[in-house]
Amino acid sequence: MVDRCFQSTAIFAIMAVMTAATAAAGEYYVAPNGDDGGKGTKSAPWRTIGKAAATLKPGDTVNIREGVYRERVVPGASGEEGKPITYRAYKGEKPVIDGTGVDLTEWTGLIDIESRHHIIVEGLTIRNGLRKFDVAGIKAEKCGDLVIRGNRTIDTSSSGIMVWRSRNVVIDGNEVTGACNDGSQECITVAITDGFEISNNNVHHNGPGNHGGEGIDAKDGSSNGKICGNHVHDNVRLGIYADSWDKHEFNIEIFNNVVHDCSVGLAVAAENGGLLENVRIYNNLAYKNKHDGIVVAGWGEPVPHHPIKDVWIVNNTLYHNGLPNWGAGIMVENSDATGIVIRNNLLVGNETCQISQPKKQAGVTIDHNLLDSYHAAEDEIKGNAPVEGKSLLRDPEKADFHLMKGSAAAGAGSPDGAPPTDYDGHPRPKGGPVALGAFEP
What we know:
This protein is mainly beta. The longest helix has 9 residues, at 13-21.
């Protein structure tokens, strides 16, 4: 997947520092024809990843050769700052960790990292974690300085990748498919975690998801994180979610993602009364989702309030979301939400409303949005300085939402809160006033 997290962060720099440090450390090898009594060298590899997990010291790397490994991997030691422990596929090969026949307890992972720090997991395929109610592909809990990069998880009862109670975590460039086969949690779950980046992942075709199943969820009081550059599609539940649950969740950026063919594109909520605060949602493309493109939701437990504060929804493109007779481009349905800004968005052909605000509460600012096919439906809101013209998108049915010459979206936006680059990484504005939607012309 193309890297669309153009705004680098200190967290993402963890990857470069940790990866560079491995070159001077011990190199070990595992292969299906190896021997755990051997030296773990390239010519005399170990047979199991478990042997490596019990042996590696700070700075070491295990290169896992192609083949199928039917085992649960539990790292036995942490790395150190500048000396991570790395579990990676051997260059050009595709090793598989397979849960078939493995004794798995509830609330575990085929790769299960607990209370370990400075760990890299890279390039592995993890599949068939289906034997118990809550089995993840990769599970990390109480960890720090963790990089999960370029892996593929297939068919897990719970999350493909799950992180709890951790700090400084990068989840980048993974493919998650067939997750949440009636287990709880989400395809990628980050909970009670401070400092995270969920970037450039392909999350698609999950299982039934009757107990969970959202695509990507930063939840339960997570903070200081970015969700960017992901492609989330063909899932039975919503695509990208930030939910404070019963804690204070804050400083979340959700940008440059593509979400389609889910139940809802992107949503924010405070399901069990915790405050969700300071969320920025920009440069996202949400199209052909079954209900709404973006929702400021009032969902959750029967608590007195679902507080949400300071959420900016700016320069997104919302196209043809909704089933017949139901569905909005942007929906604000939480009467407790304040400091909500909806600006510079491009909304085209969403089924019932382009922008809907059923509660009509104060504290919601709506301005400078393009409403292509305004319905004048109940609860539909134009806001201030609306643009009711033709969007003239290049080829929206093929998901090309670039603006063509003469688009009413060109130069019609406000600079207030507009992100400095567009979806393609071009400067915003580009040779004139700010455009509406995710793309500058």
